[in-house]
Amino acid sequence: MNETYAFIEAEKTTHGVALLCRLLKVARSSFYAWLAAATNRAARKAADDALAHEITVIHVASRHTYGVPRVHAELRRLGRCVNRKRVARLMREHGIQGAHRRRRRSLTRPDKKAKPAPDLIGRDFYAETPGTQLVGDITALPTGEGWLYLACWLDLATREVVGYSMAGHHRADLVVDALKMAAGRGRLQPGCIAHSDRGSEYTSSLFRHYISDLGLRQSCGRTGSCFDNAAANSFWALLKEEIGTRLWPDRATARAEVFDFIETFYNRRRLRKHKAFGYLTPAETRQRHQHDLAA
C-alpha cells in the first residue's frame, strides 16, 4: 500500500488526487493520513539508520562474532534503551549475522594403563567462587608449519581463561605449563578442582605430581563422552569460530593471534550472559565476585 500512496504523491500534480484515488481504489482520507505521517516515517528511518550504524560498529568490534543477544546487551551497556526485536530486524535487514560454530578435531588419547581420577564435576559446570573449579582441554590449530597445539584452563565461575600454553606437541608438559600460568596468577584456591578428559596428558605422572604439589584435586570425565567436559569443548568451538582464521601461515602468527584473542578480546571485552550478573566480560565477572566477597 505504501507504494500506491507514493505513486499518487508523485503523480498528483499531473492527474489530481481524486482521479488517482478512484482509479487505484483507495480512499482519499487514507492517502492524506499517509501523507501526514510522512514526517514521522522519515524520523523513524533516520533513527533506524543511526541505530544500524551503531550495530555495525559493535559487530565489527566483536570481530564479526556477536549475534542479536550480545549486540543488544552491548547497546544497553552503552546506555541505548532499544527493543531486542528492533535490533534483530535491523541486523536481518542489513545482513549482519553472528558467528556459527563448527565441529572440532578430537585429540583425546586415553592411557589404558593409567587409573583415572574420579569425576568431581558431574557435568555441573557452574561454580559460585572463582579459583575453585577449572576445566581444561587441548585443541589443534592448523598452520603452514604443521599443527600448533593449545592447552587452556577455564575458571567455571567466570569462564575466564586463567592459564594457557602453546607448542608444536601435545605432551604432558603442555598442560602442565598451562596450569603453571593459572597458578602463577594467584587465582586458585586450596583444593581447587582441575577437571579434564582422560587423555594421556592428564593421566601422566608428570601432571599428577604437579597437581599434588599445588594442592589441587584432579577430576576426569568418562572416556569418549564429550559432555563430561562440555564447558572446555564449548570454548574451543567459540575460539575457532570467532578468531576468524582457518589456516595460519606459521606457528608464530598463530601464537600471536591466539594470545590477542584470549588476552585482548575474550577475557576483557567479549560479553557473556552470567546467570546472576547479566552480560559481563569474564574479567568483569571476576571483579564482581571479588567486590561481593569484600563487601
Provide an overview of this structure.
By secondary structure, this protein is an alpha/beta fold. Helices cover 47% and strands 14% of the residues. It is built from 11 helices and 7 strands. The chain has a 5-stranded mixed beta sheet, with helices on both faces. A two-stranded antiparallel ribbon has the order 6-7. Helix 1 (2-15) crosses helix 2 (17-24). The radius of gyration is 27 Å and the shape is elongated. The model has no long low-confidence stretch (mean pLDDT 85). It comes from Streptomyces atroolivaceus. InterPro entries: HTH-like_dom, Integrase_cat-core, RNaseH-like_sf, RNaseH_sf, Transpos_IS3, Transposase_IS3/IS150/IS904. Pfam families: HTH_21, rve. Involved in the transposition of the insertion sequence.
Radius of gyration: 27 Å
In percent terms, what proportion of residues is strand? 5-15%
List SSEs in N-to-C order: HHHHHHEEEHEHEHHEEH
Question: In whole angstroms, how far apart are the ends?
Answer: 60 Å
Name the strands of the widest sheet in spatial order.
Answer: 3-2-1-4-5
How would a textbook summarize the main sheet?
5 strands, mixed
Enumerate the spans where pLDDT stays under 50 for 5 or more consecutive residues: none
